[in-house]
Design brief:
Blueprint lengths: L2 H12 L25 H10 L2 H5 L18 H18 L4 H10 L8 H11 L6 H12 L10 H8 L10 H24 L10 H7 L3 H16 L9 H19 L2 H4 L2 H17 L6 H10 L1 H11 L2 H12 L8
Amino acid sequence: MNLRQQREQLEEQVLSPFAALSANSRGRQSEENPCEVRTCYQRDTDRIVYSKAFRRLKHKTQVFLQPEGDHYRTRMTHTLEVSRIARTMARALRLNEDLTEAGALGHDLGHTPFGHAGERVLDRIMSKGFRHYEQSLRVVERLERSGGGLNLTDEVRSAILCHTAGEPANTLEGQLVRYADKIAYINHDIDDAMRGGIIFPLDVPTPICQVLGYTHSQRISTLVNDIVTESEGQNEIRQSEACRKAMAQLREFMFEFVYKNPIAKGEEGKAEDMLGRLFEHYIKTPDALPSDYLFIVGREGLERGVCDYIAGMTDKFAVEKYFELFIPEAWSVK
């Protein structure tokens, strides 16, 4: 018996009857020989972490565009926080931590530069719209490894696709990722907004604080403990009504005072214009696309290839491309 088989046997012994066991995975799109050391979900985690799309997350906006300071979240640090919250809940519920971690680490691989501002502009431009969770699935299925994809398991792909909206993921581990994403972004966005002087601790409505807590740590602990308590021994992931309502109210507060705040979001219009012009440029001059994306153009059409290229850009790369294409260079007589 190799190490992977020992791990699979251990899962059967210690995990909840509602957990997704590695040995029972629905498998991959293309069949592969199993690893002798890692379970299928551990293998998926490694593939995601070693992907180019994952590395690019460190230069993609979470909420604030190009903040001056080292401590604001990026899409990468958001992803890591989601992973930690999701794994904490999975461990407490005796679910499969490896599957949970893989889904959490891969959930935002398809996010655009400049956060949701980039998502909005591509959604307007694309004839069939654009949703970052669908693009995340596309990254792992069609774009990574020069078009070959990462060939992840069905359960991890479901966790990635279903982390924001629509039908729940096909495992409890995948459903945890959706909750962890919400818990992470609402609370760390409050933290970043306070760091930037957009809101202050006393601005958070008292009724919400009375339920969830008055600090960043208290709110996360309350929400995590509530899900664990409500979901223990159940074949579904639940929240209490009190926490669900308080979390919804906190999200409404953030939309009103942060996500639509002209000080915090004043530069987003510029970012949208920039991406719109880049998209238009590559539609007019498709030969300027890298070869990987020209292959997509030939296979799925020009709009799709340009969209994939733009969506994969980091904030920094998009700005550099914009300057290269549209800003005249300084010159001097030598």
